Amino acid sequence: MDKNVLYHDLIALLQNNFLRSRLLLYRGEAESKLLSDWIVHDADLGRTLVGIEDLKQLIEKCNRCNDAEDRKFGIGSGANRVMIILNAPQLVNVLERKVHKKESVELLKKMIQAAKIKFNECYITNLVKCDVRDSLMKPSQVVKNCESIITAEIEIMKPRIAVVFGDILPLQDIIQESRDIHWFNIEHPITLIKNPELKRQAWTTLKLVMAKMKELNFQ
Questions:
Q1: Do 82 and 39 have their domain in common?
Q2: Rg (CA), the chain
Q3: Which terminus of the chain faces fewer neighbouring Cβ atoms within 10 Å, N or C?
């Protein structure tokens, strides 16, 4: 069978809404790696992702979650080799996130600027790439579905410093596999807005980020 035809047939099966929730079987580690690579790379015949526009297309075409809306794309050039990953607090519902969205964005900007980091030169992204309306879908599964995109973002942007705002535990596998990246964890801006007493610890961590940037001659 023609290789391109086989690719298209398999991609169609993987994108089928009915089959998406079914168990996917594979033969050995080689096939497992092939399927994983498809997730990390563009499913269009295995074309390797090379830039921000490719990442945007990957998020736009993703259909791993049911009833996905409000897709979230990364912003910023990433020129300073600093990556910001936002992981919204689980105890804050979608409505509350929308209420605090503007204030949380402003707080994030102030924190980054206070650390003498140019906001527009960071690459800022969300761990979860969309809002999922399917109430039966577990948050842990949603995060799992987005892991490959975060991995692709790291591969493309090549950060030396990554700051996770929110729960960092879902990223542990990625952290263990990453090389030459220094990871830091700060409470999500919404959590800081609701709990101002946590801002002191956030600033302490930001000072560690500043020290690491100085050590790496980023400033």
A1: no
A2: 19
A3: N
Long-range contacts of 105-108 (CB under 8 A, 24+ apart): 105/189, 107/189, 107/192, 107/193, 108/84, 108/165, 108/189
Separation between Cα atoms, residue 33 and residue 88, nearest integer Å = 30
pLDDT (0 to 100) of residue 99: 84
180 and 77 in one domain? yes
Task: Report which of 165, 177, 178, 157 is spatially closest to residue 74, judged by C-alpha positions.
Answer: 157
User: For the ranges 15-29, 60-74, 196-210, which has the lowest average pLDDT?
Assistant: 15-29
The H or E element containing residue 85 is: strand 82-87
Do the Cβ atoms of 95 and 49 come closer than 8 Å? no
Q: Are 124 and 84 in contact (CB under 8 A)?
A: yes
* CA dihedral sign, ordered 33, 149, 78, 199: negative
Work out the burial of residue 88: count CB atoms within 10 Å of its CB; fewer than 13 is exposed, 13-18 middle, 19 or more buried. Answer: buried
**pLDDT tens by residue, 41-90:** 444 434 455 677 888 888 888 888 877 778 889 999 999 999 999 998 87
pTM, two decimal places: 0.76
- The range of the structural domain enclosing residue 204 comes to 69-215
What's the average model confidence in pLDDT over 153-171? Answer: 95
Give the pLDDT confidence score for residue 26 in this predicted structure. Answer: 61
